[in-house]
Amino acid sequence: MVKTGEERRVTGEDEQRMCSICRREFDSAEASSLFAEAGEWLAGEVWKDAGQLCPKCLENRAKLAMMYLSEYNT
Ligand SMILES: [Zn+2]
Question: How confident is the model at residue 51 (pLDDT cuts 50, 70, 90)?
Fold first, then answer.
């Protein structure tokens, strides 16, 4: 069940979105932690999927990324 590309393209910052990792719906305005902020940055700069992950997944990914992508963390 892999869809490519453009499904679920939402405009506007306050939309409910569905996380592309865990499929949880989340509010993009949800309070974010330091790791979630780092994850958001990484999503924009590294994975190019900003806005598609919930804060929890951003957070988890940021924690992993900080272990493996130290060159982005100087
Ligand atoms: Zn998620």
Answer: confident
Residue whose pair of structure tokens reads 């900003």 in the numeric block: 50
Task: Using a CB cutoff of 5 Å, list residues around ligand 1, an ion.
Answer: 19, 21-22, 54, 57
How far does residue 59's CA lie from ligand 1's centre (Å)? 9
pLDDT, one tens digit per residue, over 9-30 is 555 555 678 999 999 998 866 6
Contact between 44 and 21 (Cβ < 8 Å): no
Residue 23 Cα distances to 28, 34, 45, 69, 72, angstroms: 14, 22, 22, 25, 27
Its pTM surpasses 0.90: no
